[in-house]
Structures are given as C-alpha cells and as structure tokens.
Amino acid sequence: MKVIKEGKDIRVKGVECLDLDLTLDCGQAFRWEKQEDGSYSGVAGGCFLNIKKDGGDLIFRDTNEEAFYSFWVNYFDLEKDYRAICETLKEDELLSSTIDSYYGIRILNQESWEALCSFVISQQNNIKRIKLIIGRLCKAYGEDLGNGRYTFPSAERLSKLEVSDFEAVGAGYRAKYLERLSKDVASGKIDLEKIKSLSLDEARKALLDIYGVGIKVANCALLFGFQFYSAFPVDVWMKRVMEYYPDGLPECFNGIEGIAQQYLFHWARNNL
DNA sequence: GTCCAGGCATGCA
DNA sequence: TGCATGCATGGA
C-alpha cells in the first residue's frame, strides 16, 4: 500500500481486491450511498468520507490524514492481502466461479456497537428498509456533522430513549430489543470490548445472551463488528446456498469462513 | 390486496 | 431438544 497526499485528497495505490459496489452496498454496512460520479459517501467511526476509485487507485476525499490512518485503513482492512485469500477460497469450485464474477468483496471492520445494533434491526427485514430505519435513527439521535450527515448514535444517547422512540423510527417489533440493548451497553452490563477479546465460541455465547440476538444476528455482528473472520452467518439466502455443501464447508474456508460467506451471499442474491 | 425481507422469543410437545 | 406461531413495516 502506497499513500500519496494530493491537495485535500489521499490517494492509495496498490490496493487489490476492493470493489466499492460489492463491498459498500452488499448488506454488511448500511450507511453508504452511491453518488452520481460513482463514488460513495458515508459516515463511520464518527467521520464522514467520500471514497472513489481511479483506475487501480483509491481516492479518499473529504477526510484528513489523521482519520485516514487512525480509522479508515483498518475499516477497509487495507493491510490485509485479500488477493491471497481469494486464491485460497478458489480451491472450492463454486467460489472459484463466484470470485471470478464478483471479485473485490471485502469485510469491513465496523464498530461493534453500530454493527450489533444494525443487525438487530436487520432481522426479518430487507436491506432497503434496514437502511431507512438506521438513517432515521442517526438523523434523530446521532451527532450532526453538517450537510445532512449524522453519526451513528452512541449507546449512551440511545439509553435515554423509550420503546416508543424506536418504534417512531420504524423499528417495528425490534424496538424493545434496541431499548434494552442500549441501556445494557450504556450501563456496562454488556461489555462489547470484553466480548472482542474472547474466543469465537465464548464471544458468540455472550452475544446470544442478549435479548433479540439469535444465531444469525450474533454471527453477523461477530463477522462485521468484532473481527471474527470465522463467523459464518446463515440467513434465508445462505440456507439455499447450503444445499450445495451437503458434506459441510470445504477445508479451504478454514479461518476465513466469513469472507467465503460474503461471496456466496452475493452469488445467491443474484442467482437463486 | 398479498408476499417477503441478512430472525427471534415464546409456548408447547 | 425441536417445531409452530406471532411479530411491524415498507416495497414489489
């Protein structure tokens, strides 16, 4: 990875395997919007960013070096060799053709609080409406960054709300889950940083104890918000894919099941 | 109008 | 343990 400062922009050369459409608009993060010039704008880690591809380079706009190095490098996992990971996954026949068709899906390192809340909202819901609800939640209770941009609200802020407030942003029957989750995280009863330090099985167990979190939401949160690349979420789409693996997952998935899953999820949504 | 979406809690066997 | 059922809401 080579970083060049260009005026107010930061240009990154040599990032392999990062397709913005496949990564930012594939149901793992819900706060990115495609712009007319093909770039994406979004808020994460309390910061706004516009990001664009220029040939093989990535251009980070409307940000600064401090935010770039302290947050975005990790968020986009720029130091990880996804090309090598894809080569390993291509030992599997279905993934081989899938990666050829949809090369460039990455797992974003999202903040655990935002990921956990987002995937509680995601249950029995479609991606468009998940984005709608989260957008309303951020606008109502997030920090105002100007220009119609808002941060994802903290647990402390949301802990002040009642169930009816979550219903008002369209959370539906999930409102009661969000209400209790916010209060428990804010009070320290649920310690997300501690969960991060546990083994996969222990972390999953801790998440399953949370009201409104089942196996699917737990695995999504583990993969997208707690950096557990072995977590393998199975939703209605992945249940259809699993018929292609009657004998279980192939060996080449070991340790990177979650990355394999994201390719298969995308393939399923386009082909099944 | 009906069906469905990155499911879960609950009750019952 | 496993299975049936109710659940909010917006888009197709």
Walkthrough of the structure:
The protein has 14 helices and eight strands. By secondary structure, it is of the alpha+beta class. The longest helix has 15 residues. The protein is globular, with a radius of gyration of 18 Å. The mean pLDDT is 97. The chain binds a DNA duplex (13 and 12 nucleotides) through helix 5, helix 6, helix 12 and helix 13.
Order of helices and strands: EEHEEEEHHHHHEEHHHHHHHH
- Helical/strand content category: alpha+beta
How far the N terminus sits from the C terminus, by CA atoms, comes to 37 Å
* Quaternary structure annotation: single chain
Number of helices: 14
The chain-level mean pLDDT equals 97
Poorly predicted runs: none
Can you tell me the overall shape?
globular
The proportion of residues forming helix, as a percent range, comes to: 40-55%
Please list the strands of the largest sheet in the order they lie side by side.
Answer: 1-2-6-5-4-3
Calculate Rg over CA atoms.
Answer: 18 Å
Q: State the total count of DSSP E strands.
A: 8
Q: What does the main sheet amount to?
A: 6 strands, antiparallel
Strand content: 5-15%
